[in-house]
Amino acid sequence: MRFPCDLVAVALALTLGGAHAGPPQTVLVQPSGADVPANLLRMSIEFAQPVEGAVLPRIALLRPDGTPLLEPFLQQELWSPDGTILTILLHPGRVKTGLIAREELGPILKAGDEVTLALDGQPIKRWKVVRDDLTGPVAAAWKLAPVRAGSRQALNVTLDGPVDGRAAGYLAVADSEGRRVSGRALLKNGESIWSFIPDRPWSAGRYTLVARGTLEDAAGNRLGGHFQTSAGASPEPAIDAKVGFTVTR
Q1: pTM, 2 dp
Q2: Which end of the chain is less congested by CB atoms within 10 angstroms, N or C?
Q3: Which CATH number describes the domain made up of 24-130?
């Protein structure tokens, strides 16, 4: 059977177009701040729509001269249920001291480095590497900005340092009866501010900011715990933290 030339041309164009499609559109890369600690453990990439096929082979960490860092990633892709957010782990064996992979290949990042995350050879995020972050989030050091009763003003909580970019849901607000206040939470300012907008206006009274004990920063340090522990140490229990605050008229 013979096909009109224009139909053949269209089919060929679609085939070639799919084979040479450009890189997927990224919405957000986290950590979103300018700096990352030398012991960075995880990062995430949010795409505008689900991406087909493996993405990790298309990603690299580049030095300023454009050369890639050697084997920086754990070969596992962790996707959100909707297929738009990819979490990538830097190889834990090279992040944590005292392990064979780190002894043989060295640490992935060093303070003073500048690195670029690239997708299909195109830069999508640059960071300056600063010293190791060895302390987990400390709830007692957080600062809560006041909100007014009768308003839907955002409760902004300045954290003691950036937390993991996917951790907005690890904090919540409870009223004086212990009931969760419904609303929308997000992380801002390089994941160093947790912002919560209630669905309904604030009522005057006492509230509690609750942080799950499994809240972590991007270096894997847990609330009140540390990623870097001695080989024989027992795991530190995950303990929730609570910070009380009052809404006045």
Answers
A1: 0.83
A2: N
A3: 2.60.40.1220
